[in-house]
Specification:
Blueprint: H1 2-13, H2 15-26, H3 30-33, H4 36-51, H5 55-58, H6 60-77, H7 84-112, H8 116-143, H9 158-174, H10 193-202, H11 205-234, H12 240-264, H13 270-290, H14 308-320, H15 323-332, H16 340-369, H17 371-376, H18 379-402
Helix pairs in contact: 1-7, 1-8, 1-9, 2-11, 4-7, 4-16, 6-7, 6-9, 7-16, 8-12, 8-15, 10-16, 11-12, 11-14, 11-15, 11-16, 11-18, 12-14, 13-14, 13-15, 13-18
Length: 403
């Protein structure tokens, strides 16, 4: 389960790097390159809503096997037919597979967790491995980046590594058994019943609130992850490889944040933890941008000479990363286990839409108003998180009182 999530993290987190690399290799504009996020988001939507709706029929384990096998093959083809169109296909297909595997993964966690605190802890640990994958993304792609030849497509060879990792995860999952009886329906349901159930659940207060929080969190997190490499290069004048490497510290702080929350969640209620994370993220972002000086005259290739803003911005990962698993655990554990896959599908739908439109929107702000304005705009979804978390607390308290 941990390796499955880690493998998809490496691939999907590479969209920000891919945006930068296709600009260099194929002479594509920033806004056009950022449409790769649209293909990733569309793929996740199709995987979560269309295929994920039938995940109980397919079986959680079978769904994950299909996703890993398909991704392994497609990623292995990238270096052989590298082009901007191929990158669109890659993010569309792997996005679909990720949407499927995420619904199956969240549902499986509900099966194996004995109580709410254990659920929050396990989900945080699993999501921590997503951030481990994000960290490895920067390391892997930096190793294949050719600073001396901007038009080079050597970065595409990194996808051989990702293909091998997907197929390794596939082999390990083949040797793993999962008891899914508790999530199966007692009687067969009509083919389109899952869509009806999803539509009904989507209109409930808990689903609407979670959807709002997911959109705000994804826009915030993708704003940092996808645009820090470009911000470091175009605003702070770092070399491309150093920009990617230092942006990877965001993922490192994210790992620390999610692992730490995995332990804290066993003892502390989710509400004060989430509010602390949101306030911390806003504080770090504001301080980092206030300390930004003038752009260095010469490209910076030594991390010891990098502006302090570069490292401060990465610290935001410590606070932003725990928000996603904690709010999902709070929402999922308010429902019966059999409905977890449906709520997870709704969540992934909202996530895919936010990822698809959030990244290009920030790209437009970046291109028209500059990198500082683009990062400042992240304070808007952070403010939405503050409001949404308070709403979720009231909903869960009301459900607990009525139980």
């Amino acid at each position: 389960m941990f390796l499955n999530y880690c493998a998809y993290s490496i691939q999907l987190s590479s969209v920000g790097i891919a945006v930068l690399q296709v600009q260099r290799s194929f002479g594509i504009s920033l806004v056009t390159a950022s449409t790769l996020a649209l293909y990733k988001g569309l793929g996740i939507f199709l995987g979560a809503v269309v295929v994920g709706s039938f995940v109980k029929r397919i079986g959680y384990r079978n769904a994950m096997l299909i996703a890993l096998g398909t991704s392994g093959v497609v990623l292995g083809l990238v270096p052989l037919v590298v082009s901007f169109d191929m990158m669109k296909v890659v993010f569309l297909v792997t996005g679909m597979c990720y949407g499927l595997i995420k619904v199956a993964m969240y549902s499986t966690i509900g099966l194996v967790s004995p109580d709410r605190k254990a659920h929050a802890s396990l989900l945080s640990f699993v999501e921590a491995f997503y951030k481990v994958g994000s960290l490895l993304t920067f390391v892997v792609f930096a190793a294949f980046t050719d600073d001396a030849h901007p038009e080079s497509t050597s970065w595409a060879n990194a996808y051989y590594v990702l293909s091998a990792l997907m197929l390794t995860a596939l082999g390990l999952l083949l040797a793993t058994k999962i008891d899914e009886r508790a999530a199966r329906d007692a009687e067969p349901k009509p083919l389109f019943q899952p869509f009806v159930e999803m539509a009904r659940l989507a209109t409930t207060p808990i689903a609407l609130t979670l959807g709002l929080l997911v959109v705000a969190t994804v826009v915030t997190e993708h704003g940092f992850m996808n645009w820090l490499p470009t911000f470091n290069t175009k605003v702070l004048n770092l070399t491309t490889s150093l920009s990617i490497q230092l942006a990877g510290f965001y993922a490192a702080w994210s790992v620390v944040g999610r692992i730490g929350i995995g332990f804290i969640a066993r003892r502390v209620h989710w509400f004060p933890v989430l509010m602390g994370c949101v306030v911390g993220a806003a504080t770090v972002l504001i301080i980092a941008l206030l300390l930004k000086g003038d752009m260095p005259a010469e490209p910076v290739s030594d991390w010891r000479k990098a502006p302090v803003t570069v490292l401060l911005l990465t610290v935001a990962g410590l606070f932003v990363a725990p928000i996603f698993p904690m709010m999902h655990s709070a929402a999922l554990t308010s429902l019966p286990v059999a409905r977890h896959s449906t709520l997870a599908s709704i969540s992934v739908l909202c996530s895919s839409m936010a990822g698809a439109f959030g990244t290009p929107l920030i790209g437009l702000i970046f291109q028209n108003y500059g990198g500082v304005a683009a990062l400042c705009s992240l304070l808007v979804p952070i403010a939405v998180l503050m409001v949404g978390i308070n709403i979720m607390r009231r909903i869960t308290q009301a459900q607990t009182a009525g139980a």
